[in-house]
Amino acid sequence: TDPAVIRNFCIIAHIDHGKSTLADRMLQSTGVVQARDMRAQYLDRMDIERERGITIKSQAVRMPWEVDGVSYALNMIDTPGHVDFTYEVSRSLAACEGAILLVDAAQGIEAQTLANLYLAMENELTIIPVLNKIDLPAAQPEKYAAELANLIGVEPEDVLKVSGKTGQGVEELLDEIVKQLPAPQGVRDAPARAMIFDSVYDTYRGVVTYVRVVDGELKPRERIQMMSTHAQHELLEIGVSAPEPQPTKGLSVGEVGYLITGVKDVRQSRVGDTVTGNLNPAQESLGGYADPQPMVFAGLYPIDGSDYPVLRDALDKLKLNDAALSYEPETSAALGFGFRVGFLGLLHLEIVRERLEREFKLDLISTAPNVEYDVVTEDKSHLHVKNPSEFPSGKILEVHEPMVAATIIAPAEFIGAIMELNQQRRGIMGGMDYLSEERVEMRYRLPLAEIVYDYFDQLKSKTRGYASLNWQADGEQVADLVKVDILLQGEQVDAFSAITHKDKAYAYGTMMATKLRELIPRQQFEVPIQAAIGSRIIARENIRAIRKDVLAKCYGGDISRKRKLLEKQKEGKKRMKMVGRVEVPQEAFIAALSSD
Ligand code: GTP
């Protein structure tokens, strides 16, 4: 295809502003998907994506569109909208010349609208501002067109107005994509260079790698090279998604499509890497490539210990499709054998956990999520602590915690409530701007540990659901952090240890001790529950003793009934974990570790 008739674009939007719905409508308007084959969110292939209505993995699709008698090929690259997947967004943007900046006409600009816009501007993309959902009775297109125009420096009339739901304005938008976006530039005779912006594991085809060709041409059957690792593969198939895979005789300058090489692991075909030909390899790769870094860690343990091998295989399988997932085996005295798993954020954690439970039929306990600390010990060595129970007990020089730069957008009436919340979370305000008379953008620097748990829920409830949040990693800081241990009858329960700020240690200790007093049944002896920092006890509760004699209830009667009761008690014991001499029911661990 001649690059002059190619347009590569993506749609960027805040979550729920209607990106997938608009993408579906474009597939329909361009005729690549017939109305009768249309199912909601065609591009979101995973069931879990469709159910949750969110896009996790980006996908690309080629659509024909005619303007003034000329046939164009529009390549639409769908991008994930959630903050946990920003890394994938930025790779997708790098494969495009332009971006549709989509804003809900009833909501206006939100935090991820800005974050995505900034990413698009960094990639020097041409931006087409579009208001969506103009069919909604609550839509305020004039007001938000002004807001959007003001943000990117155009006239309010230049903001297109569409409805992905009814299809209004979508054909005009397709025309504007052709007219406003530049055609891809590249050197046809140069050695081939293609950027990987996605790779997906498929049970039948192995890894399917999505690429954007920048220079030269890639052809089927030729040998290719991954520039970061120099690994070589044969190109078994090359083609475009339209949206079903359609093999072609090659991909050249400006084209977007897929490659299949028969590799089985997405790590061999990494997002951000450059593909080149083996015979005439390019000298320079297409710029930065960084592994996505896990930010949040949690222990995952099978409730039934014999499921451990199933969990291991399940994680191996998920990893095939999720280069950002990392895990290593760990053991816990309280929970048995499991894994410490690293995630990009809490949503990522939830999704992985849900997939493990649903697709692999696993029942899991997860420990409270935590961040990674850099602990400097007295001999100046650095210890990277991903599991609170590994926090050293000896002398510590300092502890570094990861920080984030957060942007919050909300109606101005909530400024006070937002400032209060951020103060409680050890946040420092960096600045504040009014987007319009009634809406503000507030910028904070916060410890990541303070936002991984319930921060977003709190922010939503304090702003009646109106605030939106975006954050990104922003270095680290030295903080006064301690490890709080929980002891049952003097025995430490590793799964309950937490690293907290010194000022919050007491609150954590009391909360856990009270919770456990209610969850652990009485034993034949008194059980003290203590929270401790090192050897210093900071909170204490007692479970009083009982004499539990199940046979006493039988009044010496029927012997078979007695036997049944004894059997029952034995069964119950199987689901008990022993902590020292204390029997703790499995449910107590689950309940104590669940967030509320
Ligand atoms: P992510 O893929 O998770 O980023 O979400 P999204 O931006 O793709 O949003 P999605 O397309 O899933 O739409 C979110 C909600 O808005 C859904 O309930 C849609 O039915 C609704 N919606 C999308 N477009 C329109 C529209 O033009 N009009 C109306 N009334 N509703 C819309």
From TrEMBL:
Localization recorded for this chain is:
Cell membrane
Q: Which Gene3D superfamilies match?
A: 3.30.70.240, Elongation factor 4, C-terminal domain, Elongation Factor G (Translational Gtpase), domain 3, P-loop containing nucleotide triphosphate hydrolases, Translation factors
EC number(s) in its UniProt entry? 3.6.5.n1
Reactions it catalyzes: GTP + H2O = GDP + phosphate + H(+)
- Signal peptide positions (record): none
Q: Which UniProt keywords are listed?
A: Cell membrane, Elongation factor, GTP-binding, Hydrolase, Membrane, Nucleotide-binding, Protein biosynthesis
Membrane topology, record value: Peripheral membrane protein
Superkingdom to which the source organism belongs? Bacteria
Q: Is the keyword Cell wall biogenesis/degradation in the record? A: no
Q: Which Gene Ontology biological process is one annotated for this entry?
A: positive regulation of translation
Q: Which GO terms describe its molecular function?
A: GTP binding; GTPase activity; ribosome binding; translation elongation factor activity
Q: Which family does it belong to?
A: Belongs to the TRAFAC class translation factor GTPase superfamily. Classic translation factor GTPase family. LepA subfamily.
Name it.
Elongation factor 4
Which organism was this protein described from? Galactobacter valiniphilus
